[in-house]
Amino acid sequence: MNIIIAGVGGQGAVLASHLLGRAAMSSGLAVRGSETIGMAQRGGSILSHVRIGSGACSPTIRIGQADSILAFELCEAARALPYLKQGGALVACDAAIQPAGSLHGYDRREMADYLKLAAKNIFLLDSALVDEKCGARCLNVALLGAAASRKAIPFSAYDLEKALRGKFSGEAAEMNVKALRFGAMLAESMS
Q1: What are the residues whose beta carbons fall under 8 Å from the beta carbon of 24, sequence distance 6 or more?
Q2: Mean predicted confidence (pLDDT) in 54-61
Q3: φ/ψ (deg, to 5) at 52
Q4: Averaged pLDDT for residues 74-97
Q5: Which residues contact 132 (CB under 8 A, 6 or more apart)?
Q6: Who contacts 163 (Cβ-Cβ below 8 Å, separation ≥6)?
Q7: Do 141 and 182 contact (CB within 8 A), yes or no?
Q8: DSSP structural state of residue 23
Q9: What fold characterizes domain 2-189?
């Protein structure tokens, strides 16, 4: 399975790709990955490639070959869209972040409408609701929960919870597990 993770520096896209890698290795699956980090690490574009399963020689995914795109921000979702294969899944946060170095933002609703037309299999996660219930620092994990629930990744929320508990402990683990479960619940309720 080929998965693109797109976001803005500081949102946790790299951590999300590492958690997918942990889940793959725990399941006995081969995994390869690569990150492209924008010029400004905080606020710059992040694009992670995660390839899960045998036969993946290269860590990068070619245009039109991603089974899924997980995006933490609407503009980054649109930017990653050429990677999505026909019938692939797009799971994205409905957040809009002013691009680094830009004088103009964009209309969140217009971008969401564009994505809904461009990708047939799409789920937009309510980022404000996740922030309210789980905290802003958990959006990346909530998106993974939603992706698991929508079958956009080859792991269940339980598999990801094991990966989280292997990475974090104590309060940080509980906070992230809560967000993971909340994201999965939101995606299930919208099915």
Answers
A1: 30, 31, 52, 154, 155
A2: 82
A3: -120, 130
A4: 93
A5: none
A6: 19, 20, 22, 23, 26
A7: no
A8: H
A9: Pyruvate-ferredoxin Oxidoreductase; domain 3 (3.40.920)
pTM of the model: 0.91
Q: Which of 91, 90, 20 is nearest to 49 (CA)?
A: 20
Rg (CA), the chain: 15
Please report, for the chain, the start and end positions of each structural domain, with discontinuous segments joined by +: 2-189
| Beta-carbon-side half-sphere exposure of residue 14 (alpha carbons within 13 Å) | 13
Q: How many C-beta neighbours within 10 Å does residue 26 have?
A: 14
Cα distance between the two ends of the chain: 22
Helix (H) or strand (E) holding 89: strand 84-93
Write down the pLDDT at residue 103. Answer: 58
- Mean pLDDT is lowest, of 67-71, 85-89, 106-110, for 106-110
Structure confidence by residue, pLDDT tens digits, 156-179? 999 999 999 999 999 999 999 999
Distance CA 23, CA 39 (A): 29
Q: Which candidate, 184, 143, 101, 112, places its Cα nearest to that of 17?
A: 143
Separation of alpha carbons 161 and 115, rounded Å: 29
37 pLDDT above the threshold of 70: no
Q: What is the pLDDT of residue 38?
A: 61
